[in-house]
Amino acid sequence: QVRVVESGGDSVQSGGSLRLTCAASGFIFNQYAMSWYRQAPGKERELVARITNAGDRTDYADSVKGRFTISRDNTKNTVYLQMNNLKPDATAIYFCNARFTLGVALRTYWGQGTQVTVSS
């Protein structure tokens, strides 16, 4: 069945870096746009970054522009989020999302999340 599995979350000090990985299976990966969301305690879920199915276009939340990079490898059914110069406000559970829209079709899958903690 469908699997969307995040990994790479950790506890780091302010200024550090992490690379999150999202491994997908059970669907045609290159048909799906992929995104990273995060949710901090007591806050709304926030879109962090997204990438088109072909990997030819990316978008970022203003708060992470210039520091985070989303990428994907369609030969490995994997999407990444490189996070540099992390600050405490990046502390959150990070979720990987897959989304398919074509005509009237609309499908989305979520991973279980991976915890990122940034200490000052």
Please give a quick description of this structure.
With 120 residues, this protein is mainly β. The chain is built from no helices and eleven strands.
Q: Care to describe what's here?
A:
- The protein is an all-beta fold.
- It has strands at 3-7, 11-13, 18-25, 33-39, 46-51, 58-60, 68-73, 78-83, 92-102, 105-110, 114-119.
- Strands 2, 4, 5, 6, 9, 10 and 11 form a seven-stranded mixed β-sheet that branches. A four-stranded antiparallel β-sheet has the order 1-3-8-7, with no helix packed on it.
- Strand 9 and strand 10 (105-110) form a beta hairpin.
Key features?
mainly beta; seven-stranded mixed beta sheet; four-stranded antiparallel beta sheet
Largest sheet: 7 strands, mixed
Count of DSSP-assigned helices: 0
Overall morphology = globular
Overall number of strands: 11
Radius of gyration: 14 Å
Mean pLDDT: 97
What is the fold's blueprint, element by element?
Layout: E1 3-7, E2 11-13, E3 18-25, E4 33-39, E5 46-51, E6 58-60, E7 68-73, E8 78-83, E9 92-102, E10 105-110, E11 114-119
Parallel strand pairs: 2-11
Antiparallel strand pairs: 1-3, 3-8, 4-5, 4-9, 5-6, 7-8, 9-10, 9-11
